């Protein structure tokens, strides 16, 4: 008997969380349908305005944001929605006891849309104690997350989640996410490193040495080959299944890194750790970072324990240049 996402999460974590995950899954099914026929429906290309972070929004960014927001705002257990695409959190003041804050990047990697390369939806769920301030609850360190989830829109559409008891993968089939792998484990080391090498000259020189060490085998004892899609979910999904390391260092253009702590780094770091991997900003564990505002960015090194620890050792052992 196939097990759906709702059944799986309800059995392990109860109705409250299962309802939030299911609403996310329903939105993902709608987003997948929009992506599949985007070229025919005229929804590829830029929406014509920038988001709060100065990035060009694609029409599908807007559509995915509206779809996910609509699916979640109807749940009385949701206290606030915090989206990468919205300037400010959407707070539901009439629900002072609602226990969940849902934080999301509705469509990550959207610059890849026009060339039909994988994109993803990323969701982090934080807990809110009754009566507590919803924004403060959203800004808790990632270690306090109730769940982390992503959807990888690829040759098949895969949803991966953790709620603190392992990492589980579901495949979209006939409008339902059906369990395909339970208790996913990230290999302790792997054959690939993944970063935008075009940016290396713009990062601290230690990163060039890290990459050289990964390539020639001097960093971990194994030589690494290069893979980079430029869509975080695609690069992370490969790293989760095959092992290795993904890096997005600070650059001159993005001195704090490009990826966002709340929308991207936290949920995937939760998943990485639950699968046996690790994630750091180069100085501290990602899940220990206390953000000051929702859109904050972070450097990110995420993947197999062996590689993440070797890279961190090199970064922290190295004087700042
Ligand atoms: P986005 O949220 O605007 O889509 O940007 C995030 C994406 C990630 O999916 C990916 O890892 C990264 O940007 C790639 O950046 P770059 O093109 O600088 O390599
Ligand atoms: Mg994004």
Describe this structure in words.
The protein has 321 residues and is an alpha+beta fold. It folds into 2 domains: 5-181, Fructose-1,6-Bisphosphatase, Chain A, domain 1; 192-316, 3-Layer(aba) Sandwich (D-Maltodextrin-Binding Protein, domain 2), CATH 3.40.190. The protein has 9 helices and 15 strands. The strands form 3 sheets. An 8-stranded mixed sheet has the order 4-3-5-6-7-8-9-10, with helices on both faces. Strands 12-11-13-15-14 form a 5-stranded mixed sheet, with helices on both faces. A two-stranded antiparallel ribbon has the order 1-2. Strand 3 (78-83) and strand 4 form a beta hairpin. Helix 2 (15-36) runs antiparallel to helix 4. The mean pLDDT is 95. The protein binds 2,5-anhydro-1,6-di-O-phosphono-D-mannitol and magnesium ion (MG). Residues 84, 105, 108 line the site of magnesium ion (MG).
């Amino acid at each position: 008997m196939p097990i759906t996402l709702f059944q799986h999460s309800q059995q392990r974590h109860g109705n409250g969380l299962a309802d939030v995950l299911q609403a996310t899954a329903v939105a993902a099914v709608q987003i997948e349908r929009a992506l599949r026929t985007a070229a025919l429906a005229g929804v590829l290309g830029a929406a014509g305005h920038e988001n709060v972070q100065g990035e060009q929004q694609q029409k599908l960014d807007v559509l995915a944001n509206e779809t996910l927001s609509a699916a979640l705002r109807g749940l009385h257990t949701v206290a606030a929605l915090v989206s990468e695409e919205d300037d400010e959190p959407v707070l539901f003041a009439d629900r002072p006891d609602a226990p969940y804050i849902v934080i999301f990047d509705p469509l990550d990697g959207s610059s890849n849309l026009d060339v039909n390369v994988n994109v993803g939806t990323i969701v982090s769920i934080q807990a809110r104690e009754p009566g507590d301030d919803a924004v403060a609850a959203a800004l808790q360190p990632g270690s306090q997350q109730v769940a982390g989830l992503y959807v990888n829109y690829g040759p098949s559409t895969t949803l991966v989640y953790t709620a603190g008891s392992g990492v589980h993968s579901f495949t979209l089939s006939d409008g339902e996410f059906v369990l395909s792998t339970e208790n996913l484990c990230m290999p302790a080391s792997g054959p690939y490193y993944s970063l935008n090498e075009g940016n290396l000259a713009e990062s601290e020189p230690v990163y060039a040495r890290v990459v050289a060490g990964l390539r020639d085998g001097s960093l971990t004892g194994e030589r690494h080959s290069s893979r980079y899609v430029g869509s975080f979910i695609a690069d992370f999904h490969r790293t989760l299944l095959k092992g290795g390391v993904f890096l997005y260092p600070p650059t001159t253009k993005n001195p704090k890194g490009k990826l966002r702590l709340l929308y991207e780094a936290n949920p995937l770091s939760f998943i990485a750790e639950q699968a046996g991997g690790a994630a750091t900003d180069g100085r501290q564990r990602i899940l220990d970072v206390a953000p000051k505002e929702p859109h904050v960015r972070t450097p990110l090194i995420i993947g197999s324990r062996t590689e993440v620890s070797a890279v961190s050792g090199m970064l922290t052992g190295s004087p700042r240049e």
